[in-house]
């Protein structure tokens, strides 16, 4: 089946953003006078709950904390994340920029299917590839577009609808088990690049697991053939 589109997850796949998210959560908790602090260990566990607002609600339930306004805290967190991203030296993960560039050269469609908010996607592109590159994506679907987040496949369904394509036409790029489940629920071939928080996830069912997307754009000894075989023959 000829490849027509690449669909990217954002957090953990395009860039290692979760530490910035964690910092932003902790900052708003402190500002609001809430005595929560999400360590890396706690946050790693909480990441199984997709969506920042849902994560706050889950932690409030788990700790039996009353009176938490999750929507307000999450809004403040998104504002803080925007500023923190602008001040950060965040970099895209290896191979991401080249893969996107090569896909554009070959005329493949590009999509984003993420659980995070549109504002956070914009912040990341402003800090890295620029909004001109984001404008070249044919579909950008985010938290605001769905009624249920990953591992539900709704966000991937919306991207495929936008692109006018079938699951067999695309490859999804994900870093987490939740993202893999979402893409695979529709039968989309999925390449996994495990991230700092998802290295221990269960990636059973993935079509390919790579240390980084650099292994895809710069094939080297050890690159899984299943993965290279998905790309157009003139890709490299
Ligand atoms: C990852 C997430 C997000 C981020 C925080 O989404 O689960 O919730 O951790 O972002 P993905 P928000 O990998 O699908 O991009 O606070 O905006 O939810
Ligand atoms: Mg992710």
Automatic annotation (TrEMBL):
Keywords carried by this UniProt record: Hydrolase
Molecular function (GO) terms listed? hydrolase activity
Q: What is this protein called?
A: HAD-IA family hydrolase
Among InterPro entries, the record links this protein to: CbbY-like, HAD-like_sf, HAD-SF_hydro_IA, HAD_sf, PGP-like_dom2
Respond yes or no to whether keyword Hydrolase is given for this record: yes
């Amino acid at each position: 089946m000829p490849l027509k589109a690449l669909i990217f997850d954002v957090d953990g796949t395009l860039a290692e953003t979760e530490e910035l998210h964690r910092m932003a959560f902790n900052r708003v908790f402190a500002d609001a006078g809430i005595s929560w602090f999400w360590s890396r260990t706690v946050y790693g566990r909480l990441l199984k709950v997709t969506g920042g607002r849902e994560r706050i609600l889950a932690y409030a339930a788990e700790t039996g904390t009353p009176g938490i306004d999750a929507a307000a805290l999450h809004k403040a967190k998104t504002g803080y994340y925007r500023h923190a991203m602008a001040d950060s030296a965040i970099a895209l993960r290896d191979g991401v920029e080249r893969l996107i560039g090569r896909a554009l050269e070959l005329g493949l469609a590009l999509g984003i299917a993420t659980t995070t908010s549109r504002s956070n996607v914009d912040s990341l592109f402003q800090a890295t590839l620029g909004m001109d590159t984001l404008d070249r994506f044919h579909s950008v679907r985010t938290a605001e577009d769905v009624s249920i987040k990953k591992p539900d496949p709704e966000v991937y369904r919306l991207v495929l609808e936008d692109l006018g394509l079938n699951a067999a036409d695309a490859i999804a790029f994900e870093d987490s088990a939740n993202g893999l489940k979402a893409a695979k629920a529709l039968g989309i071939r999925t390449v996994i690049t495990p991230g700092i928080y998802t290295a221990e996830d269960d990636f059973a069912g993935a079509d390919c697991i790579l240390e980084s997307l650099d292994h895809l754009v710069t094939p080297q000894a050890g690159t899984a053939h299943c993965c290279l075989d998905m790309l157009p023959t003139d890709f490299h």
